[in-house]
Amino acid sequence: MHILLIEDDTEAARVLVKGLRESGYTVDHAAEGREGLSRALAGKLDLIVTDRMLPHIDGLAIIQQLRRARLATPVLVLSALGTVDDRIRGLKAGGDDYLTKPFAFAELLARIEALLRRHASAAEATILRVADLEFDLLARRVTRAGQEIELTAREQKLLEFLMRREGQVVTRMMLLEGVWDLHFDPQSNLVDVHISRLRQAIDRGAERPLIHTVRGSGYVLKEEEE
Amino acid sequence: MSMKEGRRWGLFNTSAFRMSMGYTLLVTLAVCVTLGSAYLLTQSIIQGDVDLIIDTELRSLENQYVRSGIPGVTDEINLRIDSWGRIGAVYMLADPKFDRLAGNVTNWPFDGAPAEPYPEFRIESIEPGQRSVHPVRASVRRLPNGDWLLVGTDMSQDRRYVRTFQIATLWGIGLSILVAGVAGFSFSFRLARRVGDVTDTCVRIMSGEQGHRLPVVGSSDEFDALAASVNRVLDRLEEQTRTLRATFDSVAHDLRAPLHRLRTRMDAVLRLPALESGIREPVESSLREVDRLQRTLATLLQIALAESGAPLASPAPVDVGELAGELAELFEPVAREQGLTLAARVDHGVIVEGNRQLLAQLITNLLENALKYVPAGGRIDVVVMRLADRAHLIISDNGPGMTAGDRLRAGQPFARVGQRSGLEGSGLGLSLVSAIARLHRARLTLESNDPGLRAVVSLPLSYAEAASTSLSRSISA
């Protein structure tokens, strides 16, 4: 997977590039907007991570140029502004996700993975299946090993979010955004409490738990191999 | 639609309308006095002239009597009745028993001697082909020999003149009232419309359409002058807001960038393979500290931005009831874990104009505040309801509450409240709540819940919503 990082803060960029390479990605780095844009337009990229404020050409302008050139490469916007309006502007310009600096590297990694996978599997499924867990999206019915599991509407939404990202690390922030549409950081351990309730409903008494905690990152729903 | 409606009916309520009605009244009064006194004056002048003529003739006839006795007077009267006498003259000489001796009146018109100096009566004249009745004004003298002498004037001509004048006066008064009324009404209507335009524009600017300006019609009157100078003020304000935002952006950027570098490096350290736990733990706790710093910074920037008076950038309709319901559902398990009861009673479809994320942050901060201070076994209630044209969001608990002084202070920007701030987490939560409330033109009141704290946020409903409320109210009424 080939990623282009456009970031003028060379010190931060160096560490990020190193981290991403260690995670198995091929990473190019552009230190300013013009270079970033020309590389982005050259194509053959799976993902672009761009800073919002760049010398010469602004991050949002790069996205707009890219979309005008009919390139659908997913773009993750990094911003040091982080106001509500700024986020909306970033997504309106054609960005696919938005992350406010400073962020945890694990958060960036999880979002990069989510964007790359989302691009790969856009097909609409009506039944989600992970191991013996089944979610009939039309009937809104959840079963584990044939046993029906009662869930509230919000718990179902949380489970659907996790099942659609089977095997991917999903961070707390991603869950708050995706399930509750909250784009700020509450101080309470809200997500943990809701996950533990969902875990009780799904994994209680099961031989193999499906919901796993990833230390320092978030959660992942997957069938653990032996 | 309802705004326009309200404005039309509000016309009677404008100072312009009252003023122009006052002027109409004044004009009416002035016209009445002028024309009325002209009428009265004319009438009295005409009468004065007539009386003068009568007196003069009486005197000359009396002189005639002195010179040549009754026969002289009789001759003189007959002479005057002749064609060269004045038009409409009436004479009569009668004996003491009021029987006619001479003159052009056949019968004594009064019952004896009249009391008033200028009595009036009517005579019938038979002219060829038609009969007519003439009003006559006269005066009577008694001659030294006991005979009665009457001199009068046919007033029909003068009466016609006065009547015409009267009608003209009444028409004049009526027309000037009409003209003044119509002019006043249209004047106040136009004035109300222009003031209404100003009000509408202000409302739109307040609700976030910063690019809006007052209309300059081009009539270069005082309204255009006013609009132009208000527009200049608005331009300046917009410019300042833009500068302020740019400043905030660069402050945010300059503070976040080093934090970001710091965090990225620490992250990288933690990813090093075979990291000793003696290093890992302090780095991890420093990282948590960086995150707390970042959160405080974000809150401070948000408060500062909200307090700067810059309006909401892109307000949209938000269902506060639904939002509060969702958040209560989100926090309910957390409350239950702490041994608290969290109950929500929210009306749906309570729409306000605002930013969903900021309103969610407001509700979250109030809920987290309650969760932090209410001891196990306590209770938190979330209520959203519509009261008149406002949405009321009430979050109450039965915890320790706050002192009256702290309640007052908590609403102020950047205020830190007594003991509460001693606990972990920034004491800025309530400041942010009050800043977001202010940004939404909402009233935040912290009250005692006896025991506990009750936070009431009263938000103005969105226009469409407020209009439909008043509509349904008027239908049901």
Q: How are the secondary structure elements laid out?
A:
The complex is a heterodimer of chains A (226) and B (477).
Chain A (H helix, E strand, L loop, with lengths): L1 E5 L3 H13 L3 E5 L2 H10 L4 E5 L7 H10 L6 E5 L4 H9 L4 E4 L4 H16 L6 E4 L2 E4 L4 E4 L2 E3 L3 H12 L5 E2 H9 L9 H14 L7 E4 L3 E4 L5
Parallel strand pairs in A: 1-2, 1-3, 3-4, 4-5
Antiparallel strand pairs in A: 6-7, 7-8, 8-9, 10-12, 11-12
Helix pairs in contact in A: 2-3
Chain B lengths: L1 H9 L4 H67 L7 E6 L5 E4 L16 E8 L2 E13 L5 E7 L1 H51 L15 H50 L5 H31 L8 E4 H18 L3 E6 L4 E4 L1 H18 L5 E9 L2 E8 L6 H7 L18 H11 L3 E6 L4 E8 L2 H14 L1
Parallel strand pairs in B: 7-9
Antiparallel strand pairs in B: 1-2, 1-5, 3-4, 4-5, 6-8, 9-10, 10-12, 11-12
Helix pairs in contact in B: 2-3, 4-5, 5-9, 6-7, 7-9
Overall pLDDT confidence of chain B: 83
Count of individual beta strands of chain A: 12
Helix content of chain A: 40-55%
| Structural Rg of chain A | 19 Å
CATH H level, superfamily name of the largest domain in chain A: Response regulator
The largest contact between protein chains, plus residue counts on each side, is: A-B, 41 and 43 residues
Could you spell the SSE succession of chain B in H and E letters?
A: HHEEEEEHHHEHEEHEEHHEEH
Give the uncertain stretches of chain B in residue-range form: 1-8, 419-425, 471-477
